[in-house]
Amino acid sequence: MTGSIAAIGMGLAAIGAGIGVGAIGGRAMDAIARQPEALKDIQANMILTAALVEGAALIAIIMAFLVK
Amino acid sequence: MKELRSLIAIIPALLLVVGFPVMLVAQNHDTQAHSTHPVTEGTHHEADHADNEHHTCHFHADVHATEYDATGTAFHHIADANVYSIGSYNFPLPCILYTKGHGWDFFSSSNFNFDFFGHGEGRQAFNQYALDAGVVKRIEDPAFPSGAVALDGFMHIEETMDGETKEIAYACYNGAHYKLLPQSTADAGLFGGGITSFYDFSLTKNVVSMLLISLLLAWGFFSIAKAYKTRDNMAPKGLQSFIEPIFLFVQDEVAKPFLGPKWEKFLPLLLSLFFFILGLNLFGQIPIFGGSNVTGNLAVTAVLAIITFVVVTINGNKNYWSHILWMPGVPPIIKILILTPVEILGMFIKPFTLMLRLFANITAGHIVVLSIVGLIFMFGKLGESTTGAITGAVVAVPLTMFILAIELLVAFIQAYVFILLTASYIGAATEEAHH
After folding, report:
1. Among all residues of chain B, which has the CA nearest to that of A64?
2. Is the ipTM here above 0.90?
3. For residue B45, what are the contacts with CB-CB under 8 A and spacing of at least 6?
4. Which of residues 394-413 of B touch A (CB under 8 A)?
5. Percentage of residues in chain B with pLDDT exceeding 90?
6. B346–chain A Cβ distance below 8 A for any pair
C-alpha cells in the first residue's frame, strides 16, 4: 500500500463536511415542507451555509495536497 | 420551427456519442503505431546501459506504455497547454518569454515540434527554451546552441536539496544533458514553484479561452443592450430572453437581499463575475472544443477571489472594521487573545475558500469525466483488446453524458455560489450599525 496519511485526513474532513451539508439540506427540506412560501429565502440561505461548511473540507483538501 | 429546435438539441448529443468513439479509434491507432517504431530507441538505450542516467533519457510519447496511466492522463488534460486542440487539430499558440539578461522572445509554439498525442513535450528546443511536461522551460547552460535544436529526450531525476525532494528536469542533446529551469510562479513556493530568472507570459490555451469568452460576452451583452434601446417596451427576443431571467435572478435574489440599499453600486460587479465564471464553466464542458479548464485553474480563481477581497476591503465601513479589530461588547482580554486574530484570519480565509471552491468543483468534475473516459482505455488495455474497449465505451459513454449533465448544473451552481458569497461579504462590509 502506498499513499500519504494526509489523504486519510482529507477523507475525515470530507465526512465532517458531508454530515454538515446533509444536516443543512435536511433541515432546509423540513423548513420548506412547513413553509413552502418561504422557499426562496430558505434556498438562498441553505446554499450560503452549505458553501461555508464546504469551505472547511476544501481547506482540508488543499492541506492534504500541501503536506505530503 | 419546433422540429428545428429539437434538432439543435440533438446535435450536441450526437457530437458526444460520435466524438468519443472517434477519439478512441484515433488513440488506439496511435498506440499501435507507437508499439512498432520505438525499436531503434530501445537499442540505443541498450548500448548506453553502463551510463545509468542516460538510460532514462527519452520522449514520453516514444515509450510503449504497458498500462494505462489514468492519473497522468487526467492531470495532463486539466492542465494548461501551449497548444489549442480542436478535435484532432492542433493550433500552435504564441510563446512570449522573458529571461533576465537574455531579453524577450516571441515565437510560435510550433517551433517546439510536438506531435499530436504527445503535445506536452517538444522534440525540438528553440532559442534555449524547451517544452517539457506541458510547460515551457529554459535551458540555463550558455553552452547550449541557440535557434532550433533537435533534442534526444528529457529525463526527470529526483534530487534532495535542503531536505526537500524536488524533481529536476533535464533536456538531452548530443550525449549531454542540460538542466531545465522552470518558469517563475507566484505561489511563493507553496506548490513547489517560486521566482526564477525566467518568466512565461505565453498566450496559453486558458488565456485564449478566456479571451474568446470575454469577446463573446462583450458581443452578446452589447447586442442585448442595443436590443433594449431599439425594442423598447416590447417582449424580449432571442438572446435577450435567455439573459433577462438570469439578470433578474441575480438582481432580485442575490443583489437586493444581500447588499441592502447599496445594491445598485455592486450589481455590475456581481453580473460580470457571474457571466464570466458561468461562460468559462460551460465552455470547459465542451469536450471537443479545446476542453479548456479555465475556472479549474488556481491562478484564475485566485484573481477572481482577489477582486472580491479588494472590493470588500475598500468598501468596508467603520462598522465592519470595528467588528474585526475591536468587537464591541466583548471583554478586552478575549478580544486580544481570540476574537481579533480569528477575525483577521477570517478576512483572508473568506476569499481563500472562494478561490478553492470554484477550483475544486470544476477540477473535480473534469477529473471525473476524464477518469470515466479512461475506463475505455483501461478495459481496452491501450488498444490491445477491442472487445474490452467496446465494453468500456458502452459503460463510459452513458456515464460520461450523465456526469456532463451534472456538470452543467454544477457550472450554474458554482457561478451562483461565487456571487452569492461575494454579495454576502460585501453586504457584511457595507452594513450600517443597527444596535
Report:
1. B191
2. no
3. B54, B55, B58
4. 413
5. 20
6. no
Each residue's pLDDT tens digit, B307-334: 999 999 999 888 888 888 888 888 888 8
* pLDDT recorded at residue B57: 79
| C-beta of residue B28 within 8 angstroms of C-beta of residue B379 | no
Are B213 and B283 a contacting pair, CB within 8 Å? yes
Angle at B121 between CA B57 and CA B208, to 5 degrees: 165
Give per-residue pLDDT as tens, B76-92. Answer: 888 888 888 887 778 88
Task: Tell me what pLDDT residue B192 has.
Answer: 65
Question: Given an 8 Å threshold on Cβ–Cβ distance, is A55 in contact with B360?
Answer: no
Residue of B nearest to A43 (CA): B253
Interface probe, candidates A58, A59, A61, A67, chain B, greatest B C-beta count within 10 A = A58
User: Among B17-31, B200-214, B260-274, where is mean pLDDT lowest?
Assistant: B17-31
CA separation for the pair B342, B380 (Å, rounded)? 53
Chain A CB contacts of B424 under 8 Å are: 48
Does the pLDDT of residue B129 top 80, yes or no?
A: yes
Dihedral over Cα of B24, B27, B33, B39: its sign? negative
Our CA-based measurement puts residue A32 at a distance from the nearest CA of chain B, in whole angstroms, of: 17
Q: Do B353 and A40 touch (CB under 8 A)?
A: no
DSSP code, position B55: G
Question: What type of residue is B308?
Answer: T
User: On the CB side of B235, how many CA atoms lie within 13 Å of its CA?
Assistant: 2
Distance between CA atoms of residues B353 and A59, nearest Å: 7
Q: How many residues in total does chain B contain?
A: 435
Contact B360 A47 (CB under 8 A): no
CB contact burial B101-137 (16+ within 10 A = b; e otherwise): eeeebebebbbbbbeeeebbbbbbbbbbbbbbbbbbb
B370 phi/psi in degrees, rounded to 5: -65, -35
pLDDT tens digits, B212-223 = 999 999 999 999
DSSP-derived secondary structure for A16-67 = HHHHHHHHHHHHHHHHHHH-GGGHHHHHHHHHHHHHHHHHHHHHHHHHHHH-
Cα–Cα distance, B418 to A20 (Å, whole number): 20
Amino acid of residue B147:
G
- Residue contact B356–A58, C-beta within 8 A: yes
